[in-house]
Amino acid sequence: MQSAWNDRDAEAAVARYENLGRDVALRVYTTRLLGQDPRLVLHGGGNTSVKTEVADLNGDMVDVLCVKGSGWDMGSIEPAGLPAVRLAPLVKLRAREKLSDEEMVRLQRANLIDPMAPNPSVEALLHAFIPYKFVDHTHSTAVLALTDQPDGEALCREVYGKRVGYVPYIMPGFGLAKAAADVFAADPSVEGLVLVKHGIFSFGADAREAYERMIALVGLAEARLAKNRKPAFVSARLPARPAPVAAVAPIIRGACSLPDGKSDGAWKRFVLDFRGDAAVMNFVNGADVARYGQAGVVTPDHNIRIKNKPLVVAAPGEGDLTGFRTAVRDAVAAYGLTYKDYFARNNARVGGIKTMLDPSPRVVLVPGVGLFGLGRSKKDARVAADLAEAAIATITDAEAVGRFEPLPESDLFDVEYWSLEQAKLGSAKEPPLAGQVAVITGAAGAIGFATARAFAAAGAEVALLDVDEAAAKAKAKAIGGAALGLKCDVTDAASVRDAFAQVASIFGGVDIAISNAGAAWQGRIGEVDETVLRKSFELNFYGHQRVAQAAVKIMRAQGTGGCLLFNVSKQAVNPGPDFGPYGLPKAATLFLVRQYAVDYGNEGIRANAVNADRIRSGLLTEEMITSRSKVRGLSEQAYMRGNLLGREVAAEDVAQAFLAQALALKTTADVTTVDGGNIAAALR
Questions:
Q1: Which pLDDT does position 632 carry in this prediction?
Q2: Class II aldolase/adducin N-terminal domain: from which residue to which, for each copy (predicted)?
Q3: Of 88, 351, 573, 586, most Cβ neighbours within 10 A?
Q4: Dihedral angle sign, alpha carbons of residues 659, 665, 666, 668
Q5: Rounded to two decimals, what is the model's pTM?
């Protein structure tokens, strides 16, 4: 590991934050250096601090500890992520014998300079008790590979000698802060502290010294791990042709989903994130993966995100997905029972005061395929997968020089069910489509894009499919987050299959398919060329059928139901003059909706449609508006407002109708009319 310190970049940070002073500016700079290296810090882990002087709200200068705040990521931290806390009251707490986590949080908040600032890190007191100006803390994978051994402390002493102090494992909080301060006081010459089975601290008189001490100490761990290595894993016998990710992911996702007791037919679903590089495959393919893969997390900080261990399932062969589906469901059920036993055992130990979290795994290891991170959003799934990859690096190194041995389950439980985390249960309100994946065809058009935005705002992960790949990607970028833009020509069966396979590989499956792609052909039905009619049917009927078939295949593999939504248009029930080539396939699609409702309702798959009219879009262009207005003998404004309410209907109105249908778990075979009121197009 090499230092990334750069004098020019450091001075640029000082200039950028000149109003905050050099101390805070350099604290931000080196915190980012640490946070941007996944071998040191991942997703909110680790923390840093600087002791400096700032003006309080009265304008008086006071000594403070600027320490990483809760919820901030070190890789992208800003000064606001380093709340300033009065230092003297924190240091005074060292004289206390006991201090609960809740009291500690209140005392820290009571001494914030800015009362609106985020909570200081739970390890703020440890930073306060170490007298150095700059203090850094990481969860280095290399250091953890040394400490996560049966003789972890002895191995670290071999590497570091008296260069660092050694703190036995204690859960973060006041007790750890006092113990670390005592170890430092016994030998103030140390450059850092190794927290056994937790991480490492370094400190210095200035930002560069603290940072480069961290790099040097981690480098020594890496050097030790490079010596006397043995092959970490012996590969198991695997199917000659493993099943593809696109086929495996929906099975994993469906098996890990949980019925939501709030409403009949509702599910708590998870989004997936797949990893399968050489390091991952070497790990998951090991014959002994059930031992080292399920031993426990590499640092207790990870337990809050990915539970106490991953799920390991059998290797899937390409030709036996039915057997694999059964095996996975059995494995998930067994995991849930084991988790419930783990909870009951440890909850009894602490007096039965905890509320159990859901028993679904957050990491699934699949020999021959790779690993899946699970989360209620794509962001959370990526976090889980990142932490799993970091664990793989740590465990691989640990097994190469010894034997991986994490903390016992009681310590892992205490962190997973930390009172500070339990207090958050029920406080966060999830959006209605959290955990669901929606696919929209024709997504670069006005209705498709408005629908994609509406579903993303409701918490779904969205895949925007369009024949124009560049436009699909541009629209996805405009939505932001994990929105995905893909090329899909619904008149090409192979293109549809490939697009849905990509969605399944990237998100884990499909819950909602909005079949929206279409185009309008005109002509008097008795005179139109058959070629025109066939082209319209290919897009406006068979395109819907291909999309629905691809979606249903994935939904059935998941086994958690789903929702098919179709744009059928007013032409399906109220044909207009010279519009037969468009209206005929739309009428057939209306029947298609009802057939899907009949055939798959017993599997929880709903099929509904929106019957919209006169929406400005790529289909109803300005030129077409002019043409249709003339056919009807109306002005363009009168044509667009030609309904009972006298209001022009927008793409966003159609999007909201689709969203309402997606949320209506007890509704199928429904056609919702969105046209401002047209009795001729109204259904009984």
A1: 83
A2: 26-225
A3: 586
A4: positive
A5: 0.93
